[in-house]
Amino acid sequence: MFNQIRLFFDQYLALPAPDPVAEENLHLACAALFIEMMHMDDKVQTEEHDMILNRTREIFSLSLEDATRLISQAEHQRKQATDYHAFTSLINKNYSQEQKNTLIKTLWQIAYADGQLDKYEEHMVRKIADLLHVPHLEFIRTKHQVNGG
To answer: How far, CA to CA in Å, does 39 sit from each of 46, 62, 81, 122?
Structure first.
């Protein structure tokens, strides 16, 4: 009897194992947003690319080779996308509020990597924060954390 109950729980109520493909798609969605931020002011700077590479490695615990591959794939995805919805909807479904806040902070870091904040970069961070349901207070807090203000 006990074995039958355990079998029932194992079959019908056990949490599924994390899907590695879904995790890879999440990383790709975030990296595509990072790449979009780098292109937002129409001036791709080495500092911005380096920031993306370093933050991608750190946030997703990737090797240099894996992070470089992810960024390359993200560049392709960014070019194919018509809007941010495909990326942000996946992130919204799977990320905690803390992970979304980290993503917004990373977008600020990329925007400030070249030493100046372009109005289009700020607009993009605001738009992504809204799409991810990041509270305005957190949007401002992460901005101040990054630019020291």
So the answer is: 12, 23, 14, 13
Distance separating alpha carbons of residues 137 and 143, to the nearest angstrom: 10
C-beta of residue 35 within 8 angstroms of C-beta of residue 71 = yes
pLDDT, tens digit, 9 for 90 and up, residues 98-112: 999 999 999 999 999
Rounded CA separation 27/125 (Å): 18
**How is residue 82 annotated by DSSP?**
S
Domains along the chain?
21-147 (1.10.3680.10)
Q: Does this model's pTM top 0.85? A: no
The sign of the torsion formed by the CA atoms of 119, 83, 110, 40 equals: negative
Are the C-beta atoms of residues 73 and 28 closer than 8 Å to each other? yes
**Which are the contacts of 102, defined by CB distance < 8 A and separation ≥ 6?**
59
Whether residue 18 contacts residue 24, with contact meaning beta carbons closer than 8 Å, is answered with no
3-state secondary structure of 14: coil
3 state SS of 19: coil
Residues contacting 145, CB < 8 A, separation 6+: 105, 108
